[in-house]
Amino acid sequence: MDKPIYTITSDRDESVFIHAMPGHFISSSTHLNYYIGTSDIKHNHSVSVDAAMLMAQYYVERNINVNTVLCLYETQALGAYLAHELSRPNMLNPNPDDDIYVIGPEYDAVGNIIFRDNLKKHISGKNVIILISCITSGKTVERAMESVCYYGGCVAGVTSIFSAKDKIREIDVNTVFSKEDVPGYEAYAPHDCPHCKAGEKVDAIANGYGYSLL
Q: How would DSSP label each residue in 52-106?
């Protein structure tokens, strides 16, 4: 696959960036005309720290209390930086005294998120942020929200690096990049994909971990 790759920087911090590659990509529930690359924010220390500062600002400004960050798709490092920023003193909370926990998901045989007994205490009765790299249809986040509720937690927010959705189940998505930052970005239901209708081959299978060429 020989496709151009575009670098898109945040208008709030030019050191924070993603990559966008045009093509025909499929995920578990949608077809996409762009693959959004978030690896630098997830895996590059300096970029990740700066992105976490942007993400934390949303919760600090709204004085939203956070106890746990639930990290999906290799966002644990980013989640740790986000927790660090949220636990720092600020004008609204000059003396924070609550620890913020950072946990990753475990999935059962049918794809439901489960929490072992040693982690339940970080969900039950806690305000939980769901952190994810990319949101397209929002179905992955919805399942995570359901799991948090099953275990007695409260979803205090949804945060992403890139999101094609403004809201998920009436909760505003706190995102660094939106589809407005990627002109022409579209996500299609499989039966409505114009690339498929035009007979264009699929370039790659994509998910929150990356993409695999076909």
A: HHHHHHHHHHTT----EEEE-SS-HHHHHHHHHHHTS--SS-SS-----EEE--E
Q: Pairing between strand 127-135 and 154-163?
A: parallel
DSSP string, 94-154: SS-----EEE--EE-TTS-EE--HHHHTTTTT-EEEEEEEEESSSHHHHHHHHHHHHTT-E
**Are the C-beta atoms of residues 150 and 119 closer than 8 Å to each other?**
no
**Structure confidence at residue 93 (pLDDT):** 65
User: For 85-128, what is each residue's pLDDT tens digit?
Assistant: 999 876 566 556 678 999 999 998 888 899 999 999 999 999 99
Q: Residue 209: which of 132, 105, 157 has the closest Cα? A: 132
Rounded CA-CA distance 101/143 in Å is 20
Query: Residue 199 gets which letter from DSSP?
Result: T
